[in-house]
Amino acid sequence: MMVKLAIVIPYFKVTYFEDTLASLANQTDKRFKVYIGNDASPENPTQLLEKFQGKFDFSYQYFEQNLGGISLAKQWERCIDLCENEEWIMILGDDDVLGTTAVASFYSHFTAFEYKTNVIRFATKKIFEREIQENVIFMHPVWESATAAFYRKFNKTSRSSLSEYIFSKKAYEKFKFHNYPLAWNSDDRAWLDFSEDKLIYSINESVVYFRLSEANISGKNDNVRLKNKSEIEFYRFMVYHKLNYYNNEEKLRLLRRYQAELRRFRSLKISEFFIFLFFYLKHINSNWVIKFFKKIVHKFKKH
């Protein structure tokens, strides 16, 4: 089987990068090519890369202009543009780690998902700084809709991060990544878009290790305002375009989350009040509409 998999690394921090590269060198199946795009980082990785010459196929590109500070999603896309003729793409964080059989599992499962899906995901474990979380592996249904997968994350019965997914290049080229602030919800949106209503296929026998540290966006607390702006945009998309995929209880929770994110940012506008009223009337039972209406009327009377 020819090489079908590109592993794209948008590089910026060297702290855990050697762990990432070592996990690629240790793959039991080397049918992949790695494309590393340096986002004008002050931390030069070339000496480290020399240690891995000949251990797996990779190319390295230094970009003179930092793009991730303006749009992280655009930096991902710029790195993907380095790819050649591979049909499937994985974006691997420069601090995340692949289990040794990840690539081998991709190929061994290939006939099971070929032509049936645009999105594949692996099981995951969290790494806190350098410590792997105690034996907690997040696994998934073998076949699952993107909307159901997102709701499990929303409901905190699952988790999701960019590095654990492989996606079809054709689907990516059709949609690209939505440019949310900090790309905070760009991966969640991608799986909803890229799947094109096909089911996601999960490979649970191999693990991707996602690192949570103060150095990455997920672990930082100084960007809460930007994350909130992203949440508002993302949940607006969910409410306007994905509610019909959920039952009434799930619809209510998504509507209330959108409302809560807006109110965390500022007070509701009159126009937004009527929009929420419309959605509650359309999708939710009348008791919730009455509660919502009374709450808002009371608030406006106070002002």
Describe the structure.
β6 and β7 form a beta hairpin. The model has no long low-confidence stretch (mean pLDDT 90). The chain starts with a strand and ends with a helix. It has twelve helices and ten strands. The longest helix has 18 residues, at 224-241. It is an alpha/beta fold and 303 residues long. It has helices spanning 17-25, 46-50, 72-80, 102-108, 110-113, 146-154, 169-175, 186-194, 224-241, 248-265, 270-283, 286-302; strands at 5-11, 32-39, 58-63, 88-91, 97-98, 119-128, 131-132, 143-144, 165-168, 200-212. Strands 1, 2, 3, 4, 5, 6, 7, 8, 9 and 10 form a ten-stranded mixed β-sheet that branches.
What is the strand and helix layout of this fold?
Blueprint: E1 5-11, H1 17-25, E2 32-39, H2 46-50, E3 58-63, H3 72-80, E4 88-91, E5 97-98, H4 102-108, H5 110-113, E6 119-128, E7 131-132, E8 143-144, H6 146-154, E9 165-168, H7 169-175, H8 186-194, E10 200-212, H9 224-241, H10 248-265, H11 270-283, H12 286-302
Parallel strand pairs: 1-2, 1-4, 2-3, 6-10
Antiparallel strand pairs: 4-9, 5-10, 6-7, 6-9, 8-10
Helix pairs in contact: 9-10, 10-11, 11-12
